[in-house]
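Moderator note: this is an archived Q&A kept for reference. The question asked for a predicted structure of one protein chain; the sequence and the answer are reproduced below.
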Amino acid sequence: MIGRIPVLDVRPLVDCGRRAAKAVAGETFQVSATVFREGHDAVAANVVLRDPSGRVGPWTPMRELAPGTDRWGAEVTPGSEGRWTYTVEAWSDPVTTWRHHAAIKIPAGIDTDLVLAEGAALLERAAAGVPKKHGREAVLASVDALRDPAHPPAA
């Protein structure tokens, strides 16, 4: 069954997945996949490497390889010899969706107060998941700026 955000045609792929793709330890290679969703909301994706003992390594953000193609990719590098595996994770990206809407509506003067309030609420929820030492205050400063009536909307 395909979910709401399908991840299809994951590569590298050898012999329809019957054989393992191979790389030399320290060699960087691209993992790519087709990632999309219904509607106009944005998506985002990561590649997650697992080392030969099964430990989850750092995730690597994927980027859209060519606008409008739904093809996403990221460069990854296994750090040692052995059977590494990877997973592509994808999700709805509400912050990017909001930024896209704001970039259209605010310059046009359409629902400016509503767009700013939605952005502030969204970033406030996001700030709860950001550790204090990794930038929570910066996200909360953005929330305050979006709610500040003295700030012009385009600032």
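Archived answer notes: The chain has three helices and seven strands.
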